[in-house]
Amino acid sequence: MLTISTFSLILLKSVSRAMNTDYFKTQLVVTVAGLLAALVLSFIDYESIASFWYLIAGFSVFIMLYTMFFGISVQGSEGVNARAWISLAGRTFQTSELVKICFMLTYAKHISVLRVQNKINHPLHVVLLALHAAVPVLLCHVQGDDGAAIVFFFMFLCMSLGGGVQLRYFILLGALVAVSVPVLWKFVLSEYQIKRFTSVYNLDDPSIQLNEGYQQVQGRISIGSGQLTGKGLFNGPRVETNLVTFQHSDFIFSVAGEELGFIGCTAIIVLLLVYLLRVLYIASKARDDLGRCMCFGFFGLIALQSVSNIGMCLALLPVMGVTLPFFSAGGSSAVCLYLGFGLIQSVYMHRPDANVPHLRSTRTLKMNFRKLNA
Q: What are phi and psi of 174, to 5 degrees?
């Protein structure tokens, strides 16, 4: 985590040369604050936090609805119209980033309860699990943030699989998705979203290169221009002239490609892969279903965003508007990811064979208090 954070700061230091905003300083503050928050969370028993699932769920729905009605609307030239941010202390905050971490807790709690009751594969409860996941997915869609909706959906799949939901339900879900694709394409997706899907496979068309495909074409050129070793840190001419829009956030991978080349891009992929494997290792060591499902949820979050972001930077996937986890600039995204990191650390700190100091859970404190009174 420290290596990834340092790598991110170096890339953003280079990007800041071409921007009016010093993303390096902002990200440094966010990184330090995030790591400190993660450290505190790691000592708190995750079961104690999840016991307040009803408050977490209520807060999540409230903040998403508040954003939908009173949030900041962002409109783009291609037809983008998303209301997914709120103003917080003079800065914008994307509420869905925090709700992803909340969902990781509430959905893991939902699965763990069903596991205890041996109802995880009862058809009614499987439907209720799907409805649980449908709430953030639909709210993100209404906000105009379908990228976040897809992330929630993938988290739902990973946590359900890790929680022991039988394969037959996934096959049924896959069939429903396949049947609904034509309906979604014709009646749900906006015109600009359809263009993003079609343009990524027609980037050789000059008209697309100058319009909806511009960002991906420029990003791909930047990555290719670095060749094997890159042009050197703080020496990328395309970075300095800001040819790739949003190179500080969604297209930070293009900065690594130009200045650090194939080696730098490979380093990012390897770091994220090792981190994901570590999360799965912690899942295998978790003391209960709650901790294991939380790990699978965080795995799904990091994996989907990493693949989607790198894929769109390489012009292999359509633009989704998701950041590269821990690397992209963005206060709300980074802080919330560090909170998720802290929760996973808590799962590891409270594994059965752990021999480390930690803050006791509220249940343990209550039991000791009762014994003392007796």
A: -60, -40
Non-local CB neighbours of 361 within 8 Å, separated by 6+ positions: 45, 47, 48
State how far the Cα of 185 lies from the Cα of 302, in Å rounded to an integer: 27
For residues 195 and 202, is the Cβ–Cβ distance under 8 A? no
In a domain, 372, yes or no: no
Domain count, the chain: 1
What is the Cα–Cα distance from 152 to 66, expressed in whole angstroms? 19
Start-to-end C-alpha separation, the chain: 46
Quote the pLDDT of residue 332. Answer: 86
Sequence-separated contacts (24+) of 274-279 with Cβ below 8 Å? 275/1, 275/4, 275/302, 276/302, 276/303, 276/306, 279/344
Q: Report the sign of the C-alpha dihedral through residues 304, 308, 314, 315, in that order.
A: positive
Residue 200 sits in which domain range?
2-354
Q: Decide if 365 is inside a domain.
A: no
Q: Which of 175, 193, 160 is nearest to 76 (CA)?
A: 193
Among 102, 99, 68, CA closest to 84? 68
Interval 89-122: pLDDT, tens: 778 899 999 999 999 999 999 999 999 999 999 9
Q: Which residues contact 360 (CB under 8 A, 6 or more apart)?
A: 45, 368
CA separation for the pair 47, 358 (Å, rounded): 13
SS3 string, 280-330, reads: HHHHHHCCCHHHHHHHHHHHHHHHHHHHHHHHHHCCCCCCCCCCCCCCCCC
- In terms of Cβ atoms closer than 10 Å to its own Cβ (0-12, 13-18, 19+), residue 368 is exposed
Q: List, for the chain, all residue ranges whose pLDDT scores fall below the cut of 50.
A: 361-362, 365, 369
Q: Which residue has the tokens 């909706």?
A: 149
| Segment 181-205, tens digit of pLDDT | 999 898 888 888 888 889 998 898 9
Burial class (CB in 10 A: 0-12, 13-18, 19+), 74: middle
Residue 374 lies in a domain: no
63 domain-assigned: yes
Q: Kindly list the distances between the CA atom of residue 308 and the CA atoms of 250, 253, 346, in Å, as whole numbers in the listed order.
A: 10, 12, 28
Nearest alpha-carbon partner for 322 in 301, 340, 295, 296: 301
Taking every pair of Cα atoms in the chain, the longest distance, rounded to a whole number of angstroms, is 81
